[in-house]
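Lesson 9: reading folded outputs for more than one chain in a single document. The general rule is that every protein is listed as its sequence immediately followed by its structure tokens, and records are never interleaved. Here is the first one.
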Amino acid sequence: MEKNEAAGAARSDATHLLAVGTKKGLWLGTSSDRQNYAFTGPHFLMQEIPSIAIDTRGARTRILVGLRSEHWGPTVAHSDDLGATWQEPEQGAITFPPDTGAALERVWQIQPDSAARPGVVWAGCEPISVWKSTDGGEHFELNRGLWDHPHRTEWGAGYGGAAAHTVLPSPADSGTIHIAMSTGGVYRSTDAGASWVPRNKGIGATFMPVETPEFGQCVHKIARDPNHPEVLFAQNHGGVYRSANNGDSWDYIAAGLPADFGFTILTHPWRSDTAWVIPLTADHQRIPPEGQIGVYRTDDAGQSWTRLADGLAQPEYNVVLRDAAAVDTAEPVGLFFGTRGGTVYASADEGEHFIPILQQLPDVLCVRAAVVELF
């Protein structure tokens, strides 16, 4: 997205929308200044909300949420009126075909495609699977290319489960899609999902017999550069990486960070070479380094990192999960994240200053932000 397009979204007649998914429900907030929010919720009380998407394509804002009920099971619901009402298919939005012998455990990510492909929405799920919707996320079809992949029997479960947690369709090429899974690493399709190949060269896997295998890495999150779709960033289970060639190879860029473990990585919505991570001490501890949480930003593709912590309460021993952080497209860009201790922070200046906007929530699993028009 070019800067003038993104900045145009911050008109005075637009509203900042923040969606926070937790272990026990969904909160939706609106604001005119990203300082003061009016929240509704909890929606879906006592249901887990591991995934959210805010789809602003077309002449409406659609909120999509991955639900997980201990009684009713998992599905995807959507709202076209900022959460006033919700709809979901009677038979479930995501249902495995009978011949797979599988059942949906959790929807880990919901990802709208580009503006050039309206109606197309992707989902990454547990068990490891990718799904495509062509009706705005109301019904999804299983991607058989990945489900029938010969590597499937060798993919393992990460600490949180065996899931395809990231789906990145390329805005430049409808045939190119990247996914990341725990555990399996990064896979890429160049034929719209008909076939998939592992793309993990250079990404470490210290827990495996071969430290840099073809696949089997526990990549926690990947993100795409806004202007150069072939440039990708990754937060690994140990290691922060950048690829300049569509994932064919990866370079380690964690020098200057206090730790190279973490879950989330974000890229700027229109400026290249800018990314944010939230480091954690090595996986056997999983706390912010020395109990001091900080967001680290690079503006030079990982050559250097700046710590951003103004306004963050210290000490902090809670983790920020892979989808519990987000950016918006306002000017300047807003940065938001929530902790497993139930605090949600907002920054209206790319992380230079934070304020807590929600506290004492259940574990925060997912945060999404957008600038929306009120139709």
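And here is the second record, again sequence then tokens.
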Amino acid sequence: MDTDLLKTFLEVYRTRHFGKAADNLFLTRSAVSFRVKQLETLLGVSLFDRQRNNIQPTPAGERMLEHANAVLTAVERAKQDVSLSKLQSVQLTLGIGHNVWDSFLNDFMQPLSSGLEDVSLRMDVISTAVMSKQLSERTLDIALSFDPLRIDDIEITKLNRVNLVLVSHQEGQTIDSLKQSQYIKVDWGTAFNIMHAQELTNLPMPKLHTSSAQIACEFMLSNGGCAFLPETMVKAKIQNNDIFLVEGVNPMRRHIYAAHWGKNERLDEIEQALILLTDKAYQ
């Protein structure tokens, strides 16, 4: 299947507009329309409902989204695998769950790079659903997430603990005084949501709900409010009195889990990567 057709489909899906997709792809609008029509003819289904200024994916188009992303990811990986330099014999692909980078993995770029000298690394922030699918399809080597993935023949390694602290832009806040504050709820996974619902009923309804700790932190600094953020991210800001710990609230602890297929042909490199991650985590 022509990857240009898939790329065009994804851009129309993203923009919901043939003209905008054409601008982003440096094509004419008629070329974009022709490519989408080619793909629809190839598949034998309509991918979009075309109404003036209202382009919406059909049910078939919604289903096609996942397949298009998977094909393009596989093609990209194949290109990288076959074009590795003489000094890089293997490529490892890591799928990173939302917030895993900000709370944990950011500190590991140098240890991984220096510890895996002959390995090329690819890192993508993806959803848990995409991680599970790519692990099952063997297009992902290591998945890093807050909730362990439950897939047959997949091995799970507990890497590290992340402390989430409740911080506020105001000093001297308690859980009760936060009722008048803007709460920013960050998605820290299923276990966090369960603990949140059971133990933090006094918090106000979220002003902002986000899957990015960085977005939450920047919003709080600009607009005020409170949020659970990684201790490593806010430590310096607390020391500088830019933000403050909410009094009387214990940290909520989350673990980072690594998942990989036990029969992966790159198992030696995967195990070395996990050793590097685990060693630094507990130093």
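What the second record shows: The mean pLDDT is 86.
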